[in-house]
Structures are given as C-alpha cells and as structure tokens.
Task: inverse folding
C-alpha cells in the first residue's frame, strides 16, 4: 500500500520533537547529577577547593646554596645537611647540650666495658615509600657507608661487628670504649637510615642511589637545581605529624638578597645556618612590622690560632699579652650590634661539659699586656711604637677570609689596632677560601689566623681531636702539647660521667694556663621569621636549626 506523503511528514516531525524532548530531559538529569568538565569547578567544587586551600599550609625558607636533592644519599656527605635531617632519621637524636634522646631506637644498653651497644628499635615504622623499617634496614644502612675507606667516624672505624638479633633488635660491637659513639649516631650524615629500595638493585649495599627515601617527617616532592626544593609531609611518619603541609626551600645565595626577599614576603624564614643574615641588616629586620628577629645562643666560637712554630709565640708571656690586648666587649657591642657575647674560653656554655667554673679566660688589660711583653724582652727602644727584641720588631702576619665570615674583617681590623697599641705590628692578609684553608691545614703560612670551632654535636670531642690532637700523619693543628692530647684521650674513652667531666675540666684549665689561643667571640644564631609563621623554635644543632614539625601558619 502506498503511504500518504502528508502522514509521513507529520509522523517524522512528531518523532523529531519526541527525540528532542528525550534528549533535553536526559541532558537536564545529567547536568543535575554529574557536571561536565567545563563545569567541574563550579560552585559545588569551589567549596572543596577552598577546603584544600585551608589545609595547604606552606612556608618558604631561604637557603644559601643548592640542597642537592638528587644527591641526598643518607650514607654520603653530599647535599644539604639540613635536608638530610628532615628526610632521614637516626637511631638517636641530639638534644639540648648534648643529651642523647631516642629516635628510631626506643632504648639501648651499653656493656660495662663500653664496647657493645644493643639497640631496641621502634615497631610499626615505615619508610616514606611504605617499606618496613627494621633491624635488617639498619644493617643495610650502616653497611652501605661503613664500607667507604674514607669514612673517619669512630663509629665506623672502630666497629667490629653489626648483628641483627631479631626484627627490632640490633647489636654493635666496637674495638674500644668511646663515649661519643652515641653522639656520632645523632649526626645528620652519614649515619641516618635509608630504605633498601632507595638504591638499584634494591637491597644491594653497593647499589646506585636513586631516590631519597627515609623515615623522617618530610620527603621530596620536586627539585630544580640551584633554584628550589619542595618538601611535603611523609604520610607514613611515625612521630607527631608536622603542622605544615609543605616547605619550599628557595636558593638565595646573596645575603642582602635574602633580606630583600624577607621584606617583600617572597620568603618567610632566613638566617642562621640556612644562610646568614648580615649583622648590619638586623636593624632593618627589627623595624619591619611583618618580621620578627629570633636569637639563640650558638654552639660555636670564633678564636685566633697561634702558630707554635713562630718563635715569638712560643713565649707564654707574648700569648697572654695578645689575649689581654683584645677588647672582646667592644667587638660585641660596637661591631656586632650587641649580638653574641664575649668569648670566655674555646666553647660557649651551650656545649656539653662546659661549665661556669671551667669556662674562664683573660680579660681586657692593655697595661698588663705591655708589662708581659716587657717581661718577654720586647720593648720599644726607638720610639716607633713597635716593641723589639734583639733588634727585631715584634711583627706578625694575621690571616683571615671573609667569604664565609664577613664579620672577620672588622673584628681583625680592631684586633690589629689594639695589638698596635701594646707594641705589636700586625699585617692583615685577606685570602680567598681555598688559599685560606691551605694556609690553615697545609702550609701553615701564618703567625696568627682567625678560625671558628665546629658546631653542636661535634663539640667538644670532635673539634678537640681534629685541631688539638696529633694524627699518624701530622702534628696538632692549633697547639701541639702531649699532655693535652693525653687528657683528650682520657675524656673520650671515659665511660664514667664524673671521670669524663673531670678530664674536660683539666683540658680547659690547661688551655687557659698555657694561653693556647686567643678567645674572641661567641656568636648568636639569628633568624628572621615572617609573623604569619607560628610555633617557631630554634633547634639544638646546625643540621636542625629549626624544629620544623612545630611550625604552623597563623591567621593572616
């Protein structure tokens, strides 16, 4: 039968309109229940985005040099120590004035002879990649760095065996008693724990490092060489979770640029061991309404080394005279804007075994200094202001550098002037760092040289062994004295706390009696912090200058 063309046309139109209605209904239902990609951020998801922004707490920190995230192997000495300590945990932690606190080891036992250490490890700890932390992981971490023949830590060179007792117990046996074993285990590197999966092939102690995987509170999210590293919270962290969600470490090499970045708000924290703030910028920071200046007593000191091969300096009266001629109070008040304190010995009171009674040094007495020079046979016979002996003027070369410590220049110029007042001519020699360290360690091409002690966990034992104790290859760097070296040996080998303290008392007393150096200045650590950052608290070590996990963001 032939169809009517009008009927066909009406039917087609009806079907078209019916399909159109169906499509509109379906589209309407779809738009009510499942937004399109274009609408995904409209308004329902705006609330989620706002919640995410509230949870995202970010602080930007200025650092002076590239953190080297791609080289941050726990068993090596490369990359930033600060970041090492944020990503990797040790068995123990360095507390205030050297108190050793539990970390990945909950507790430990030491044998009576001081040679066997047994550590009980925390349970249910994971690395940031989710792999288990246990005694086998500790053994892996230690064996990776102990095999390096260049490793000089006693905890490595004196270790005879490393034995896994069970999943959460490990024993270390050493060939000698040495109380700083625990202190060395608190260092930022190379004694921190790394996941066996951080190397390729996984679990191979000779494997190639591929990624920083630790049990610490932080892990690396991104990294751009010489620009910045971004650290985020480790979701598997065993301790109290950080309050911040992210820390951006921004590389700002120039000290003045760090101050400008603070003022502009580009960074929230700068200073201290992260990258020093110039002393002359302190008033600027103190005047800024958005910034706070945070000061903490440091653990190092600046002092002057005497070259014991210089004939004039072999005379005790000359060494005492130099000490008495230096106005340490003026250095603090006039040159350092009141930041820091007068040096009262080799180490400040923040260092273990340094006490009020053993922390004494020479005051400022130019008149007595001149009398001591005269007693040593040095007098100004020709009226030129310089003392002579046997026709030779008392003239000394004073070496320094300012690349790392810019304040040394003004301090040394003041000392030069003060020594001139008592009849000693001083020639300042400013060297670039490589030449400076060559003079200090190798050529000994100086009469006087400015230096500084190490920091926190390395004091006092490591610094004394390094600078005041002979090695098989060379005599002591600062001052050669066999009796002093014997006292240092007694201190580091003492398992009894009272015996150890007595040995350090004797060490500091002998240094004073022999005027083995000139004490100069105890610096404070200064950091500038944006006021939007709360919970700031300075740490106890250079590798943990701030208790990062306590930082938070206040209301802006």
Result:
């Amino acid at each position: 039968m032939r169809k009517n063309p009008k009927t066909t046309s009406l039917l087609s139109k009806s079907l078209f309109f019916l399909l159109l209605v169906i499509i509109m209904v379906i589209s309407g239902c779809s738009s009510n229940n499942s937004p399109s990609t274009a609408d995904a951020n409209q308004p329902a998801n705006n609330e989620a985005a706002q919640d995410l922004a509230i949870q995202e707490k970010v602080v930007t920190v200025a650092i002076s040099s590239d953190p080297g995230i791609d080289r941050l192997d726990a068993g090596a000495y490369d990359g930033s120590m600060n970041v090492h300590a944020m990503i990797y945990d040790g068995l123990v932690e360095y507390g205030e004035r050297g108190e050793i606190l539990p970390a990945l080891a909950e507790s430990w036992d030491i044998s009576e002879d001081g040679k066997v250490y047994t550590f009980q490890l925390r349970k249910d700890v994971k690395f940031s990649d989710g792999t288990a932390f246990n005694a086998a992981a500790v053994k892996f971490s230690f064996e990776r760095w102990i095999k390096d023949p260049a490793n000089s830590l006693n905890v490595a060179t004196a270790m005879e065996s490393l034995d896994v007792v069970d999943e959460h117990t490990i024993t270390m046996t050493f060939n000698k008693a040495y109380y700083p074993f625990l202190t060395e285990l608190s260092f930022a590197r190379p004694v921190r724990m790394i996941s066996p999966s951080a190397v390729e092939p996984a679990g191979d102690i000779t494997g190639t490092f591929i990624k920083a995987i630790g049990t610490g509170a932080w892990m690396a999210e991104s990294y751009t060489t010489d620009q910045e590293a971004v650290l985020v919270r480790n979701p598997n962290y065993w301790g109290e979770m950080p309050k911040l969600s992210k820390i951006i470490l921004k590389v700002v090499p120039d000290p003045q640029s760090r101050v400008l970045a603070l003022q502009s708000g580009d960074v929230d924290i700068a200073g201290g061991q992260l990258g020093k703030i110039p002393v002359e910028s302190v008033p600027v920071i103190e005047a800024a309404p958005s910034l706070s200046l945070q000061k903490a007593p440091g653990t190092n000191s600046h002092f002057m080394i005497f070259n014991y091969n210089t004939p004039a300096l072999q005379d005790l009266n000359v060494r005492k005279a130099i000490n008495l001629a230096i106005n340490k109070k003026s250095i603090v008040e006039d040159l350092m804007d009141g930041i820091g304190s007068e040096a009262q010995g080799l180490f400040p009171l923040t260092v273990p075994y340094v006490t009020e009674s053993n922390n004494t040094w020479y005051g400022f007495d130019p008149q007595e200094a001149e009398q001591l020079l005269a007693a040593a046979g040095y007098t100004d016979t020709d009226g030129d202001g310089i003392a002579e002996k046997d026709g030779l003027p008392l003239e000394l070369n004073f070496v320094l550098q300012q690349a790392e410590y810019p304040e040394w220049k003004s301090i040394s110029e003041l000392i030069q002037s003060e020594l001139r007042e008592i009849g000693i001519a001083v020639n300042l020699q400013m060297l670039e760092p490589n030449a400076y360290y060559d003079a200090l360690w190798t050529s000994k091409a100086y009469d006087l040289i400015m230096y500084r002690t190490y920091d926190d966990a390395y004091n006092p034992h490591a610094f004394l062994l390094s600078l005041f104790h002979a090695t098989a290859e060379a005599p002591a760097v600062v001052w050669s004295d066999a009796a002093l070296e014997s006292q240092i040996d007694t201190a580091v080998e003492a398992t009894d706390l009272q015996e150890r303290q007595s040995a350090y008392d004797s060490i500091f007393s002998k240094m004073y009696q022999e005027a083995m150096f000139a004490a100069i200045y105890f610096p404070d650590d200064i950091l500038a912090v944006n006021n939007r950052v709360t919970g700031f608290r300075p740490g106890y070590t250079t590798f943990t200058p701030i208790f990062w996990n306590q930082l938070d963001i206040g209301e802006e």
The longest strand covers residues 159-166. Residues 112 and 158 are 17 Å apart (CA to CA). The radius of gyration is 32 Å. The first helix runs from residue 5 to 33.
